């Protein structure tokens, strides 16, 4: 891969390297990341754990990748549809009881339930469920601790003493004990003793073969839940924020849905991702543009160089931590025409599945929200299906409108500001009104 470097680098790890990728070459073999997330000091064995060696990471990622493969996700389609239906029912109910709603927690519950049902054979009915609250708190906290600001010692090894001085390590340990160990140990134990099939049971059956211990499985489960729950919720939360200001975009999505229904004999059924996705090109573009315009994660997950690499006149030392900015890539005017403008039509010539586009050559990519290089998110297909299921249900019944102030003027959500949630970046809290559609 060719880089143009606009800031000097020296040979000492821990220095910040400002790389600007030129999308001109193929793969990034050498930048293969060694850690699941952070090859951290304070975080090791705590939040997003470094699994020790590459073989172990690959071994533990195997069942994860298997469970997230399109074939496997399709086996769970009833669960995905059920959770999307339940989400719509919950927000419809809330919308009836109050003028404006904030959908975030219900989005979290929806995506979390999908992961917990498949992995731990448990789901939660409501956002007030105390276990859901604890898991949501843990996911939130782990996103913060795993981010650059939350784990300064991992990113700047010279500053590891700061973590000790600020009692960060002790704080993390207490947090992980209270919110991860106690809660997840109970959930894992219930899953192992229950009758339902789930991922954690499979992992226990393969423990010897995979050389895993119970702690590995616990950490893996919590990483998996963290990776699959808030990411989708945040992406859909941006959807509500952005589309509440884009009536014209909603109208085109709704038109596509209505046209589909007519083509299918005015059926009461809902479109399904595998069978009908290709009949929704504009809706697909909207989903891609939302992920480009406001990426779920501004910096993705750090990678580390598994060996020293020389790029032009520069050296990236072995073990250097590489942090790339998805937000900057998405605002690159050489790659996206008028990147600051929200324009779903820019993708009309690239409506292929995001899981396919993510594996294309760099110049053929749609966006980089799921990562870049060789190692990218294995949950793309699941994410696409979940998002599709919510779109077709939401826009069959509602239009999203902004909150109004006392004088009746819309309160537009500031799309240029966001709440720093560590790894993910979500809009500042907002409310919207769901206006029921008049369906003929
Ligand atoms: C909109 C939704 C999602 C976004 C934006 C997203 C984004 C990302 C990104 C940027 C990475 C880092 C890739 C890298 O550079 O190494 C990642 C990794 C990962 N994601 Fe996702 N993700 C999403 C949904 C999901 C879902 C639903 C799952 C299912 C559990 C999932 C599971 C994972 C896992 C296990 C990893 C770690 C892979 C590894 O260590 O190689 N993600 N995701």
UniProtKB/TrEMBL annotation:
The keyword Amino-acid biosynthesis is assigned to this record: no
Source domain of life: Eukaryota
Molecular-function GO term, any one: oxidoreductase activity, acting on paired donors, with incorporation or reduction of molecular oxygen
Originating organism: Parasitella parasitica
Listed name of the protein: Cytochrome P450
Listed PANTHER family: OXIDOREDUCTASE, PUTATIVE-RELATED, P450, PUTATIVE (EUROFUNG)-RELATED-RELATED
Family from the record: Belongs to the cytochrome P450 family.
UniProt-listed PROSITE patterns: CYTOCHROME_P450
Necessary cofactors: heme
Gene3D superfamilies: Cytochrome P450 (1.10.630.10)
Keyword Heme annotated: yes
One Pfam family matching this protein: p450
InterPro entries to which the protein is assigned, alphabetical: Cyt_P450 (IPR001128), Cyt_P450_CS (IPR017972), Cyt_P450_E_grp-I (IPR002401), Cyt_P450_sf (IPR036396), Cytochrome_P450_fung (IPR050364)
Keywords attached to this entry: Heme, Iron, Metal-binding, Monooxygenase, Oxidoreductase
